[in-house]
Amino acid sequence: MSITGADETRRTKPFFDVFLLVITYTLMVLGVLFISVATYNPSVSADLPLIGKIVNSNSGSWQAIFTVASPLVVWFIVSIPYEQFRNYARPFYAIIVSLLMLTLGTQSIRNVSAWFDLALGRMLQPSEFAKIAIILMLARRISSNPRPMSTVWDAIFTLGTAAVPVLITLAQGEAGSAIVMAVIFYVMIYFGDVDWKWLVGLGLIALIGIGVVFGYGIISGSDNYRLLRILSFLDPTKYAQSAGLQILNSQEAIGSGGLQGIGLFIVGSHSQLNFVPEDWTDFVFASIGEAVGFLGSVAIIILYLCVILRMLYLARYTMDKYGRLIIIGVMAMMFFHVFQNVAMTIGLMPITGIPLPFLSYGGSNLLTNVIGVSLVLNVTNNRSVATPAYSMTVSVPGRKTKRGRKQKVYVNVSGER
User: Fold this and answer.
1) For 42, how many CA atoms within 13 A lie in the half-sphere containing its CB?
2) Total H helices, total E strands in the chain
């Protein structure tokens, strides 16, 4: 039973969340800027204005093109009532899983086979879109059952929804995206009212698996690059000339920014000298920390925090379980991407191929995050105010008046049978 008032009814009404969209595009514009900083070539664009520096950065200009084109994606997704995604979830999921399987035969890049070659040198990464497919399918399955995973078959199908793309992604050699998918799954079943025994059991299995991987890495001393990443995380100085180089250089670049940063497009900076490998993609936060310092980095983290807390707020006032789970899934994806990426650049987490949403270079990742935010906007823009199963008005004692009498306060009490 819950007590509802005019304020809660107002919060549950459909509306287009301009606040979330503005923060999203603020991050996207900053992404274009910092990618251009990370790929700055003074011999080509030293005397050019800001726009010229962006245009002369191949990665920066492509990211700008993706950003300019993204409103079409937002418009298309928001214009569809989100209930229809129940029907689209299954075929979309099947298409993405098929693409994941096809990538297993593609050319390997850094021991990972996860991309398709497209026109103009662009590449498509299906594992990014698999995160959206999992969100839509899990929201559909969990919301259709008042007691999710209460039967053996329901548990098998629910686990399999996430396990299939996770296992294929691991087979591609891309552990980072597989971890993100697993996190999305766990957070969604947590908010989907799954029995606590499943939550505890799956959590223990995950911890045991992490412990086995860490233990094997320490004992074996293998040359496998994934194990070397774990070992270099534990002691980066021991692997300073190999797997630990990226962590140490990233920490040095971020530290050189100090409190306020050294500025943008600085000749001789760590970014300009390519001191940190992949500092325009997975390690773009190293370029950010050097350019704008501690204060600027904290400001960007606050922007991410606003996005995540806003999604939690929107989920809280979305009465429909399917829509609420979509928001929760997108929120989980965003949160873990930000946490893992920032933590690995400062040495608090092992290195994984997880980009920073909206700031790291990459069309597939940017499009995935734009789709995720658009789905959230879709839910809030098309949701309907829930009608309680029953409702009655009761009076409760209020404050005493000056004459010593208690006023009667009338509230509406509603709930579900």
Assistant:
1) 10
2) 15, 5
| Pairing mode, strands 123-124 and 2-4 | unpaired
Beta strand pairing status for 116-117 and 123-124? antiparallel
Q: Is this structure's pTM higher than 0.70?
A: yes
Q: Give, for 330, the enclosing helix (H) or strand (E).
A: helix 321-345
pLDDT tens by residue, 243-266: 788 899 999 999 999 999 999 999
In which order are the strands placed within the sheet that holds 390-400? 2-4, 406-415, 390-400
Q: Report the distance separating Cα 230 and Cα 236, nearest Å.
A: 9
Say if CB 219 and CB 227 are below 8 A apart: no
Side chain identity at residue 365, one-letter code: N
List, as one string, the DSSP characters of 144-160: T-SSTT-SHHHHHHHHH
Quote the CA–CA distance of 193 and 219 in Å, as a whole number. 40
Tokens of 395: 């009076």
Task: Round to whole Å and give the CA distance between 173 and 347.
Answer: 22
Q: For residues 165 and 158, give the distance between their C-alpha atoms in angstroms, rounded to a whole number.
A: 13
CA atoms within 13 A on the CB side of 241: 0
Amino acid at 315: A
User: What is the signed CA dihedral for 44, 46, 47, 51, rounded to 10 degrees?
Assistant: 80
* pLDDT tens for each residue of 366-413: 999 999 999 999 999 887 655 443 334 444 455 555 555 555 444 444
